[in-house]
Amino acid sequence: MIPIAKPFVNEAEAQAAYDTILSGWITQGPRVAEFEEKFAAYTGAAYAVALSNCTTALHLCMIVSGIGPGDEVICPSLSYIASSNSILYVGATPVFAEIDPSNYNLDIKDVERRITPKTRAILLVHQIGMPADIDAFTQLAKKHNLLIIEDAACAIGSEYKGKRIGSHGDLVCFSFHPRKVISTGDGGMITTSNKELAERLKLLRQHGMSVNAAARHQSSKIIFEEHVEIGYNYRLTDIQAAVGIQQLAKLDQIVKERREIAYQYHEAFSKIDCIELPYEPEGCFSNYQSYSVLLKENCKVSRNDLMQQMMDAGVSTRRGVMTSHREPAYAHFCQNVSLPVTERVSDNSIILPLYVPMLQEDVQKVIEVFTRLVS
Ligand SMILES: *Cc1c(COP(=O)(O)O)cnc(C)c1O
Fold first, then answer.
1. 95 C-alpha to center of ligand 1: Å?
2. Mind listing the pLDDT tens digit of every residue in the chain (375 residues)?
3. How far apart, in Å, do the first and last CA atoms of the chain sit?
4. Which residues lie below 8 Å from residue 267, measured CB to CB, with a gap of 6+?
5. 104: which DSSP letter?
6. Which residues pair with 97 in a beta bridge?
7. At 269, phi and psi to the nearest 5?
8. How far is the CA of 327 from the centre of ligand 1 (A)?
9. pTM score, two decimals?
10. Which of 191, 313, 219, 245 minimizes the C-alpha distance to 32?
């Protein structure tokens, strides 16, 4: 069975975790600090703050943005549910906007239509690694005095106008779940250019504690900590960070190989007229965290039948990106939400296997099976 995804981890990550365990310092400490420094350097951001995962990262971004009850945040429903959950965590209301079916990112015209006096922010998701049009959204946000929080869970290594995602905005959240391009098991990161925001995030991730463990450890004088605000335990461990440092060193190679496989798919599928292939807009460079294909109305096979037939042929697939507004947990406030484009894209797209390293014979098998079943 060809899997849908696979983390690219080996002896290097195992050794780093082993060494960290034997070092005696196993949660947020020197390896987390090193991972943050290297991550900031990689993305081109001034600061990086490590968190336990991207969901907790998004939650803290809502808090430091001062978003709360009575506020609205515009976001896509076509996303992993954690995106809109982070808005609900602070008592604010997610307002779902449509997406552009060519790149799965927010449709800026629809976003503008949904701005109200209560709107505080736009949660800009770089869906499955494809950068959203950051400049256009930044302009729109300025015009209406809104904040932008970027959900770049899938977009490490992607670029917008020649600069890596993480370097453009003030609050950009990344995930290191195994389904993403690099992994620490679980893990997250926020990049920012704002020193005050970085410091507040570091406070909030560790119970609102005024002195962190490393500072106390290094001091020759006794230090007593204070808890200056209600914080959380959203720490990344040093064991995870040590794995992340190794993963970061492989990232450019991973992105290069992912793009090569994506191009093989593009080329092989370009003549099939009942599908729409992923489209990389001018100025965007995707890490192809997922390769999602949209089946058009004239497709002879339904998406679900196609998934079953591919599984029968030994190829795992996944349905396209989910919608949040149709989940049972959202039913109480989404009864009247109408998002026809979002629903059509979610219900008719299929994600194909793409991972590194992927055997050429497996790439060819995916191409052969998919082509045979849809054309
Ligand atoms: C995976 C994902 C998340 C959640 O990331 P975790 O690290 O698992 O918390 C949030 N948003 C998007 C768009 C994702 O794909």
1. 19
2. 999 999 999 999 999 999 999 999 999 999 999 999 999 999 999 999 999 999 999 999 999 999 999 999 999 999 999 999 999 999 999 999 999 999 999 999 999 999 999 999 999 999 999 999 999 999 999 999 999 999 999 999 999 999 999 999 999 999 999 999 999 999 999 999 999 999 999 999 999 998 877 788 888 999 888 999 999 999 999 999 999 999 999 999 999 999 999 999 999 999 999 999 999 999 999 999 999 999 999 999 999 999 999 999 999 999 999 999 999 999 999 999 999 999 999 999 999 999 999 999 999 999 999 999 999
3. 22
4. none
5. T
6. 76
7. -100, -5
8. 16
9. 0.97
10. 245
DSSP class of residue 211? S
Neighbour tally for 212: CB within 10 Å:
17
Tell me the CA–centroid distance for residue 27 and ligand 1, in Å.
Answer: 22
Do residues 45 and 192 lie in contact, with contact meaning Cβ atoms separated by under 8 Å? yes
Ligand 1 neighbour 175 (Cβ under 6 A): yes
Domains annotated on the chain, with CATH: 11-249 (3.40.640.10), 251-374 (3.90.1150.10)
Q: Judge whether 180 counts as a catalytic residue.
A: yes
